[in-house]
Amino acid sequence: MSRDLHLKVCEIFASIQGESSYAGLPCVFIRLTGCPLRCRYCDTPYAFTEGQWMSLHQILSRVQEFGIHLVEVTGGEPLAQADTPSLCRALIDAGYRVLVETSGALDVSPLPPEVTVIMDVKTPGSGESHRNYWDNLRLLRPRDEVKFVITSRQDFEWSLEVVRRHRLVERCVVLFSPAWGYQDPAELASWVRDCHLPIRFQLPLHKVLWPGVERGV
């Protein structure tokens, strides 16, 4: 790297991947500080401001300690920090498989092409659907995944319309997840079953495994 990059890091921890088609796999999470959105179901508000500045070398050294080769860069909103693409490049060059979980409100094009993007599309129930950066959807590739967090039947129908309009199931993995505490999971599962589209229903596995635990999972 041409300079010693520093990013504000809320936490780095090893856990089980709780969402996406990678669910169940051991994963190291790098949770970066900062997010311009305020979703009403957000379960990581501490990531808005908490954290410490770490050099790229410090981050990589910490990740290496876990001996796990799947890494997710998350937040907050990881793309709120300008040096996140450089962090991802360094991780890839060090031999890690890198996932980036993003709100979809910021341009994903600066990310290295080897990254797997897991992109939220914010539903009306999030209170932040006006922040969706729709140009991101045309950048999605077969390796990427798009996620809709559903709070209600209205959210479900809205999300189906987005999936159909942008032909998302033809282009990448599509995930529907219940907003924990807002949408009954079994009810959402039945809606997905009956929608006649290859959408993957998912539970936030970390919520099931560690109920009430807010950090480090």
Number of helices: 5
**Rg, Cα atoms, Å:** 17 Å
Name the strands of the widest sheet in spatial order. 3-1-2-4-5-6-7-8-9
CATH class label: Alpha Beta
Largest sheet: 9 strands, mixed
Number of domains: 1
CATH fold annotation:
TIM Barrel
Approximately how much beta-strand content do the residues carry?
15-25%
Overall number of strands: 9
Shape: globular
The assigned CATH architecture is Alpha-Beta Barrel
Q: What structural class do you assign from the helix and strand content? A: alpha/beta
Could you list the spans in which at least 5 consecutive residues all have pLDDT below 50?
none
Q: What is the H/E order?
A: EEEHEHEEEHEHEH
Spatial separation of the terminal alpha carbons: 31 Å
Percent range of helical residues = 10-25%
CATH superfamily: Aldolase class I
Mean pLDDT: 94
Model description:
This protein has 217 residues and is α/β, with parallel strands linked by helices. The chain has one domain (6-209): Aldolase class I (TIM Barrel, Alpha-Beta Barrel), CATH 3.20.20. 21% of the residues lie in helices and 24% in strands. The chain contains 5 helices and 9 strands. The protein has helices at 56-64, 84-93, 153-165, 185-193, 205-209; strands at 6-16, 26-32, 52-55, 70-74, 97-102, 116-121, 145-150, 173-178, 200-201. Helix 4 links the parallel strand 8 and strand 9 (200-201). The protein starts with 5 loop residues before the first strand and ends in an 8-residue tail after the last helix. The relative contact order is 0.16. The mean pLDDT is 94.
